[in-house]
Write a structure and sequence with these properties.
71% of the residues lie in helices and 0% in strands. The protein is built from 5 helices and no strands.
Length: 86
């Protein structure tokens, strides 16, 4: 896995917000529901896809992703490990 580019803090924050909003809209999941920590329906898959993109494309830390998505760092780590192994 290789980070493609790094961004300043403010720019990175805007890109994170934009990516999360786009993925929610595409998958028809509300942003509130995604950040609530729910494990219902499509939400874990959306979180996994957002997490993967943020790590691979933007080099965002797991802790920052967890804060943005309303889950623990451990949950992000486990989900990424599962997605890379399958």
């Amino acid at each position: 896995m290789r980070i493609q580019r790094q961004h300043s803090g403010r720019e990175r924050g805007r890109k994170v917000e934009r990516l999360i909003a786009e993925e929610c809209k595409k998958r028809k999941v509300s942003l509130t529901e995604l950040r609530s920590g729910s494990r219902r329906g499509e939400i874990p898959a959306v979180r996994a896809e957002v997490s993967r993109k943020l790590v691979e494309d933007y080099g965002i830390t797991l802790a920052e992703i967890a804060r943005q998505l309303g889950v623990s760092t451990s949950a992000i780590s486990k989900r990424l490990a599962r997605s890379y192994s399958s």
